[in-house]
Amino acid sequence: MTVPAPRPSGVRSPLRLCLAAAVAVGLSGCGPDLDTPEGTTRAFVDAMAQRDWDGACELLSHDFVHRAMEGNSQYCPVYLERWHPDTSDYEALAVQGEAEESPDGYRLEVAPEGTPDRTEEVVVVEESERLVLLRYPGRDTAIR
Q1: pLDDT at position 59, please?
Q2: For 28-55, b where at least 16 C-beta lie within 10 A, e where not — what string?
Q3: Rounded to the nearest 5 degrees, what angle is found at the Cα of 26, between the Cα atoms of 23 and 31?
Q4: pLDDT in tens, 102-126
Q5: pTM for the full model?
């Protein structure tokens, strides 16, 4: 009977390494596509649902942040947290259809899943070669 030689610690089987690499490559493509208005909106909604204020601020238009936050963009996360103490509504928001291009950006609608009659309009614009939200879902119901 042949006894296999023990592997030095830290060395993994080739199959396990291949599986780990495949999973890593597969996961790198996950998440919303920030090159589309729909993906940018989805990423913002996800960030708000997770109370990731910094992540949500990164997806807001600099113009909006500057006007809405009295020119103090460094406090964007504080403002969002104050304006949206309950983010549970964001958990069920879904993008409805595809964005339509307009003179002031891309317009699209979001609504809670299962209730497409409760839509809100979102406006996505391009700033510094990336898509950001000029009008975001929940803005009209924010506590100010």
Answers
A1: 96
A2: eeeebebebbbbbbbbbbbbbbeebbee
A3: 125
A4: 999 999 999 998 887 889 999 999 9
A5: 0.76
